[in-house]
Amino acid sequence: MSGQTTGRTPGRRDVRPLRVSEVTVRFGGLVAVNRVSFTVEPGSIHALIGPNGAGKSTCFNAISGVCRISSGRITLGDVDLGRTPPHRIAALGVGRAFQNLALSPTSTVFDNVMLGRHALTGGGFLGHGLRAPWLRRAARRHADRVAEICDFLGVARYLHTPAGVLPYGDQKRVDIARALAVEPTLLMLDEPAAGMNASETAEMAALIQDVRDELGVSVLFVEHDMGLVMGIADRVTVLDFGRLIADDVPSVVQRAPEVIAAYLGVDDGQGQPAVKTRAGGGFPGTGGGNGDPATSPRPGRDGRAEPDSREAMG
Ligand SMILES: Nc1ncnc2c1ncn2[C@@H]1O[C@H](COP(=O)(O)OP(=O)(O)OP(=O)(O)O)[C@@H](O)[C@H]1O
C-alpha cells in the first residue's frame, strides 16, 4: 500500500484528542451505552471492540452525531460534538467510512469522493454554476485534491469509473477516500476488514497505518477481526452490554479476564476461558479457539446463546 501513496500530508488542521466522557445513550428503556469514557490520542490508531450488541455502533453514531447522547460529553479538542449535527461534525474534522458502503454505485469515483468534499465547501461552488473565475479556480483546487486523495488510496485509476463496478476492496477504499475528503483530523472506520480475505485485510491494515503515519490523522475503528485489532491498534477500548470493561494497550487488553469472559461468556475465575462450553470460540492470547470472536457464540442479554452470523475473517 505504501508504494501507492503520494505521501502528501494535508497539514490543514491540528490533530486534537477526541474525548468521550461518561457518555450514556438510551433507546427508550434500553441503555445501549452506559457512562463510557475513553480518549483517542492525536495520531493514534484506536480500536473499539466488543461482542455483538455491546454498543460499538451506538458509540460511533454518538461521536459522528448520528444519534443523540442522553448524557455525558464528547469533545474534539475543545469543541463540544455532543449535540452537533453530523454535517457540522464532519466539517469540524471527523470523517467516517461505513461498513455498508455509503457510495452512490452509479456515480463515478470522482463524484463520490467530491460529495465528501461538500462538508468543506457546503456544496456552494457547484451550485453557482462555476460562472465566476474564482469559482472555477476553487472547483479546480477541490478536483485536484480529490485526485490526490484517490491516488493516496490507490484508486486514482478508477476516477471516472462508476463506483458500483469496482471490486469490493476498492469500493472500501473509495469510501475511505470520501471520508478523507473532509480533511479530517479523526477518521472513523466501521469494520474496515468486514468481508475481506486475509490478503485484503493485510492491505487494509497497511492502509490504516499509512493514514496515521503519512497523513497524521488519528484513526478510531470498530472491528471484529482480532488479528487486525491487535496488530495495528495503539490502544483498545472494549465494551460489553454498553459498559466499558477495558481500555488499554492490546497486550494488556487481550489478557484481561473481563475481556476474555465477555467474548467467551464464561470465566473460570482465574482469567482462563472455559472453552469447552463455547465451541469454536476464542480470544487471541487465550489459546481458546480460532482467535476470532466474531465466529463465537455469546450469551445474549437474557443469558441465551446469541449466534453470530458473521463469517470468519482471518
Ligand atoms: N436505534 C435503536 N433503537 C433501539 N435499540 C437500539 C438501536 N440501535 C441499537 N440498539 C440496541 O442497542 C444495543 C447496542 O447496539 P449496537 O448496534 O450499538 O451494538 P454493536 O456493539 O455495534 O453490535 P454489533 O457488533 O452487532 O454491530 C443493542 O441491544 C441494540 O439492539
Automatic annotation (TrEMBL):
InterPro entries: AAA+_ATPase (IPR003593), ABC_AA/LPS_Transport (IPR051120), ABC_transporter-like_ATP-bd (IPR003439), P-loop_NTPase (IPR027417). This is ABC transporter ATP-binding protein. PANTHER family: ABC TRANSPORTER ATP-BINDING PROTEIN, CONSERVED COMPONENT OF ABC TRANSPORTER FOR NATURAL AMINO ACIDS-RELATED. Residues 18-266 form the ABC transporter domain. The lineage of its organism: Bacteria, Bacillati, Actinomycetota, Actinomycetes, Pseudonocardiales. Residues 299-314 have a biased composition (Basic and acidic residues). One of its GO terms (cellular component) is plasma membrane. One of its GO terms (molecular function) is ATP binding. Residues 279-291 have a biased composition (Gly residues). Signal peptide: none annotated. SMART domains: AAA.
